Structures are given as structure tokens and as C-alpha cells.
Amino acid sequence: MIRNYVKISLRNLIRNQAFSAINIAGLALGMASSLLIFLWIQDELRIGTHYPNAAHLYRVMEHEITDGQIVTDDNTPGILADELKKQFPEVVYAAGFSGGEDHVLSVGDKVARQSGCFVGTDWLTMYSIPLVAGSVKTALNSPTSLVISKKLAEIYFGNAQAALGKSIRFDNRNDYQVTAVFENQPAHSPDQYDFLLNWEGYLKREPWLNKWDNYGPGTRLQLRADADPNRLNAKLKTFLKGRNKDIGPNFNIEMFLQPETEAFLYSNFKNGHRDGGRIDYVRLFIIVAVFVLFIACINFMNLATARSVKRAREVGVRKVVGAERSSLIGQFMGEAMLLTTLSLGLAVGLVMLVLPVFNQLTEKHLALPVDQPVFWAALVGLLIGTGGVAGSYPALFLSSLNPVRVLKGALRFGASAQLFRRGLVVFQFVLSMLLISGTVVIYQQLRYIQTKNLGYDRENLISIPSEGEIAQKFMLFKAELLQSPGIQAVSSMQTNPLYNGNTTESVSWTGKDPSAVISFNNTAVGYDFAKTLNVKFIRGRDFSPDFRTDSTNYLINEAAARRMGYKDPVGQPLTFWNKPGKIVGLIENFHFNSLHDPIKPLIIRLANRPFGNILIRTQPGQTKQALASIEALYQKLNPKFPFTYSFVDTEYEKLYRSETVVGTLSTLFAVLAIFIACLGLFGLAAFMAEQRTKEIGVRKVLGASVSSIVTLLSQDFLKLVLIAIVIASPLAWYAMNRWLQGFAYKIDIDWWVFALTGLLSVGIALLTVSFQSIKAALMNPVKSLRSE
């Protein structure tokens, strides 16, 4: 019997090639989209979870309670790790961590900028970093120890074994000895680095980190397997209370632990509570995958139902000769599973074909994990789930047909069946419109971000690191650059113009409440700072070499002036880090952090030497010429360091790379969803036209025009689309409004977004239905009425 069913299924596939092709293509596209999203989500979920001890690894986080608000981050004192290990028996290993910095490593004439970290001696053990040369016990024991990746060992020395014991020059200042070589970090590791340096050496290099009231690096812990992190959290809450006496009695920082397995996905905190992060995008794409797959399944149902009249007599004959309903359900479900299996094979092929492009788009290294049982389990689940959902309604519907009515040729469907099919179409278009309107809003927000005035001009602005001899020769470098063609202004800035994480509470002014703890962002700049960034002064002036006292004077932004209560702050006293001075300039607010965050109070001081970044503004249209001048002069004054630069506007776009990827993927999946939904609408149009063939014939005999018949057949579908618009619009507004809450600066969702979505949906529906409507309207009424 099964063999007979297979034969019948194959014959139907071959006999109805167009119908089969549409069905297979729709399901294949839906499943391919779901597979791509599955691979992306799997990669996101495994970040930070691949370590053998992942279940016992934690990051130390801090709630900083200032100015009535709670700011959460992972900045801790540099001496915290060793102290926690001493004080708490639950802590097996502890290590400080300062990463994400590029440094110049040189061996002879091999000079290159590499990314590395300073870490505690327990780091390699905690994270089970595999070594290809050297010993874990001695790898980071000395302040001059250097552990490098296998990749760096091959670049500088040829292989890992040859690297052991060799010296590498670090930033042309110190020589470090290679004590171990580790395997290259996997792409899904949350901490990416090519070398590691000893923590004690870092504390000597940055002595300010040896105080309890200074925060900057991170701290990682590994707890005992039987330790209760909640009990340790209770102890950590007040751990810093007595160790911050220099700041004052109202200073309050509460520490807590965040599992390493959650750190990547749950990175956002709002007023002391976890508030999403990358997990929001994971949830979003789970919803998108379900939407697209449901639309594909509904498409299958509608197409199968549209062809049901062709199979009705077959069902009637089978029932007359004794076939039970259960066997008929099995037959049609088998056919659905056969189509789904073919679609799944095509989907896997599509995924393999587009995966390189998908990887480039998402900046990942995804591959089909054919060696993992979970992948095959996912494929089987996708096959059974899709086949079961797609084939269930057609199987139940066809098996329920009355054989007497079918064999008499009186096949008509009741109101409940029609309502169900129309409900499927409404559901399809609701899902499709949610994706379309979401894509429009995401595009608008990204466009808003890209074009928003940040308060300074990021165009034609170049940033280069201030390092090596260029810092000592900065005045000469600046003077010669200003004489070069294409250079408009030169200055320096301690922090990146796009990101300033430096904060302090050590600020006082006239009228300040002595019990208040208020946090200010701060940075140090060189002369011509305002001219180089093109920030605007409301009152006062920029720092100038004509005023010797500027070394203790300050600039503030509008947010700082409001927080201090100054209406006219210029000339008012201000004490910063116990250094009294005066405010000499009030500048307009400008964005020095992500648009996810509001502009915060900022204090700017004059740097006694350039450090951090050198900022260079070029003349519009002369960037290429200016870069050549900058590189030539840089290599002349700083020959031991490679010349590297970045455009501030390009770096700005990178800040919102995640949102850009989400927008692009949403657009692609929205287009796929609409295409698949149109296939379903096409199927339902064919079904309804087939059901009303004789009605159309009678109308034509009575004189109905082609246009009136097309209108008659189309208006039912337009009603369904209008219902979908009414349902989808408030749902889309709610969902996108929730997404926009993650931005401090955002667009307003305009009514026309939903009007545009509705018009697109109506237009697409009309185009899809019109083919079948016109075909039915042009049919010869003699043929349609002949059976009567």
C-alpha cells in the first residue's frame, strides 16, 4: 500500500509540474531562511559558552549609584582580583582583564600592530586556553612574560616552538620574552586577542590602577562548583564600601556577578536591572524565522486546497471501494512529507550557495555543522514540523469529503472552510506586513542615525593613534602638517570622539550639595580642539597658548552647566580632581557616545601632552592628498611605528553595525515573506476562480464585462488585505516602538509608514490576483457551462 501511495504521489508531482514547483519553491525558501537564521542564532548562543568551565565563570559587574541613577558596567579597581581571591574561599581563580587595545610588536624588521590584553596569572587556567608551546604554570609569572597566538608565532618566528624564549619589542619601549604560545582564538570567543601580558606589569605601567577609588579594567572569577553565586553576591554588594574613603561617605558602588554565559547576550542594563542586549536580536530573528516558515506552510495549504477539486473524485472513489479516513490522511500527509523532503534538500542547497554572502553580511564564520548531531536533529525537526503543519489541513480536508456529493460533481465548501482559508490569507498578510513595516522603521532609524547632526562635523576628520615619538614631537608634527596642502586643523583628544567612557565624581563647584555624588564624563584635549571638531561655543573660548592658566581651566558642555545650575558658567570656579580652576568656555552639547545613550555632563581639560588620538581635519575634496602628506611626515618623525589611521565617519557607522545588519536581514526576509505569501494568494485565487467557473460563465452570458468580473473576483481578496492592515498596524506600531526605546535619540513613527505598508500590500495582492482573475474572466462561457 505504501508503495502504491508513493507511486501516486510521484505521478501527481509529475502531472502537476507547475503546482509542484511552486509548492517546493515556497517551502524551500521558507526552510532555507529558517536554516540561515538557525545557524546565526546557534552562533550567537554559543559565544561565551564553549569554555570547559563556562558554568562556573563570572564577570564582576558594578552598579554605580550617582545623581539618583544607577549606571552598570564592568569597570573595576585594578587590584580587585587578588583581593577577592584572598577574601572569599568560593573564588578558585581570579584575574584582572584589560583588553581591546592595539599595540605595535616588532621583531627585527617585522613590525605590525596587534591586538592584545593584560591579564592575571589565572587567566589561562580559568578559560582553559590550549597551549601549543610552553607551560600554563609559568606562562604569565613574570612582568616581562608574553604569551602569543600561534598566528603571531608563525608571523614573527616561523612556528610555535621557535618562538619560545625569543624577545619581542613592545611599542618600541620594552622587550618582552615569549613564554608560551596558545591556539588561535575561535571566532565565537567573546574576547579576541593575539597576545597576553602579565597583570603585575600592567599595574606598574598604570600606577593609578593600584587605588581602590580608580576604576577601569575588568575582573573575572571562577567559583567552586558547589559555590552559591547568590550568597557571594550578597557579600560583594558592600565590599567596596570601606575601601573608597577618599571619595566620601556618599560614594556607593555595589558589585555583583554576571555569568560568563550571559555576558554577551545580556549586556544592557537600565537603572540597575538587566535590559536586554544581543538577546533582543536573537528573539527578533526567532520570530522572523517562525513568521517566514508559517507563511510558507500557509502557502502550501492554500495551493493544496486550490488543487483539491482535481483530487476530489479520487477521494470519492477510494472511499466507495472501502478506504478509511485514516488511510487517506496518511496518504496526503505522506505526499506533504515527500514535497517537504524535496524542499528541504533544495533548502540545504540554497543555504550552501548563499552562506558565503550571508557570512560577509553578518561578519561571521558560519558553516553547516554536518558533524554535529544537533544539526541533523534540527533538520529532522524542521522536516517533521513543516511537513506536519503544511500537510495537516489539506489531509484533513480532503479526507472529510462526502463521496456521494463528490461523485455527483457537487463539490462545494461550507462557510467554515471558506472562513478558515481566508483566515490563513489574513494571517499571511499580517505577518508579511509586520515584517514590511518593521523594515521601514528600522531603515528610517538607521537613516536618522547616519544623518543626525552630532554637534560636530565628522566628515573629513581623521584619527591616528598618538604613540611612540609622535607624542614627544607633536608640536613639530602639527606645525609641519598645517603647512601641508589639504590640512585644515590639527588637535589631540584623550578619548575617541565617538566613545568616551571616562567618568569621575571628583568634581566640585560653588553651590554644590556636599552630600551629592554626581558623575561627569571627562576628557583631555589639545589646542584647537573646537576648531578641529567644529564644535560650537555658546559662550567663552577654546584653550589657547596665549593663556598660561589654561592648564587648570576647563570647558564644559550644556548638560554639565545645567547639572551645576550655572546659567552663565564662564568665569565660574570649578575644581576637578582637587585642581581648582575656572570655566573658560561653554560648548553646545555634542554626542561623544552612542545614540542609545543621552548626552551626559562633560568636562574638558587641557592635556599637558598629547595622548590617545591625534585628530586632523582635511579640506573637503583633498583627503587623498592630505593622507599622503600625513603618512610621509609620520614615518619621518615616528619610523618605529606603522602608520595607521581611521576616518571618524567610517568608525561612526561601525558603532551601529548590529542595527545595520538587522535592517538588511529584515529587508531580505520581508521580501522573501511577501514572495511566499504571493504564492499562497495565487493559489487561493486559482481555487476561488475554479470554484466560480460556472458562475462566471453565467454572468458572461448575461452580458457581464471582463472588468466587472475581474473586480468581482478581486474585491474578496482586497477585503482580506484590508482586514490584515487593520490587525497588523497596531501590532507593528507596538513592536517597533518597543525597539526604538533602546535609543535615546530616535524617530517618531509616522502614520504614513502603515499607509505605505498597506498600499504595498494592496498593490502586491492585486498584481497577484489579477492574473487568475483576468484568466477566469476571459474564459469561454461555452466551455464552463458545457457540463450543465
TrEMBL record:
Its taxonomic placement starts with:
Bacteria, Pseudomonadati, Bacteroidota, Cytophagia, Cytophagales
Which of UniProt's keywords are assigned here? Answer: Cell membrane, Membrane, Transmembrane, Transmembrane helix
Name of the protein in question: ABC transporter permease
Superkingdom of the organism of origin? Bacteria
Can you give the residue ranges of the MacB-like periplasmic core domain?
20-238, 433-631
Q: One GO CC term of this entry?
A: plasma membrane
Instruction: Tell me which residues make up the ABC3 transporter permease C-terminal domain.
Output: 286-403, 668-781
Keyword Nucleotidyltransferase present in the record's keywords: the answer is no
**Could you state a single Gene Ontology molecular function term?**
transmembrane transporter activity
On whether ATP-binding is a keyword of this UniProt record, the answer is no
Q: Which organism is it from?
A: Larkinella punicea
Tell me where in or outside the cell this protein is found: Cell membrane
Bilayer-spanning residue ranges: 21-41, 281-303, 336-355, 375-398, 419-443, 668-689, 717-736, 751-771
* Topology in membrane: Multi-pass membrane protein
